[in-house]
Give the backbone structure.
Amino acid sequence: MNRRPRGWQLWMVAVRLTGMAVAASLVATTGCERSPDGRPIAASRVLGEVGISPGQYAFPRCMDTDGRSLWVIDKLARVQRVDVRNGKGISGWKMPDSDLGKPTGITVFDPTGRDNDLLIFVADTHYHRVLVYRPGPPGSSENTPVASFGSYGREDGQFIYPTDVAVLADERGGIKRLYVSEYGGNDRISIWEAVDEPAKAQGQPTPLPPPSGRGSGFRFVRSFGVYGDEAGPGQVAFRRPQALEIDHLRQRLVIADACNHRIGLFTLEGVPIQWIGAAQDGSQVAAGQNVESPFRYPYGLTLLDDGTALVAEFGAARVSRVDLDKGTIVATYGKAGRGDGELTTPWSVAVTGDDAFVLDSGNNRIVAFAAPAPRKEVAGAGGLRAGAPRLAHVEADASARERVTREGDGANTPRREEAPR
């Protein structure tokens, strides 16, 4: 086979990465509203840069933390584990398939704080499935998933474009439920349950998925949500639910409804509690119309113990801190740009220890800054920390199960061009 020299390959990669940065800049200035003038983030350090080596990125689009390291996926379909202190690569792998598109969601399930128990859930967006990995030791590049579920379609248990996964733990620290968000006309949240019945019968934590084999390990239960910005009685409308988290203290699900420019609070059964970014009568408020709901494509989300959340706004080039109970924004961090402390199309945000991290996707880096101090004492929060695993040791309210069900999937709704994929 005729092989071109290595220098030519590196030059082509550089051209490709430069093109990604230019495209991101065009999206930020034409496809989304510009954020109002703000202040740059007071960054404590910056992790990563553009490139193809470990610890470098080509438009990273999703991030999560296990409390000891960050997990990031970029548009070269690389899953990287990096050191939170210096951004150096620890381990990682290439997604098994990527020609059709790259993942937009990654979730770390860390029940014990030990690497041997880690599970990584990847929303493999353009392959219409969720892949589950049990990562190897530092330096490992093994990319064989231990479980997968989902296929293309609009029926129960199928996905169009899955975006994120949230994990609900049972009382023993095993996996009880998964919540999966998706868009593409099938804009909804699907609920899945663990199916390892023998382990449950023995009273042990559900060891899902098994270290060997590739069974699904999960069973579809139901879904809620239809495509749109308004829904009829008994329905909930979404337009690209991009991120979701479980508030384990308050037994609720928090969803970033990106293209409706709002944040939704739900019971664990999918019953709406309130929208932040919507008018009092439930109608949609245009982004920036009032001070209490100025979201512009909220793509990333992480919860703090005091009832607030950090929201990464793709279209506003900033991170907003939101009081979820009052429905108000209490602080913002960052402004649009490519300089120190500035952001371009941020996709994700995470907190671990005393640090917050925003995935500055358009600048191919991660910006670290001081995590916000708690605003108030939280009853029952002792021993919990910001950036803790996405666990919720609670029983779901079964009586609410039938109050919100999937009533249509938006199959007849015309598709509109929304935020970039």
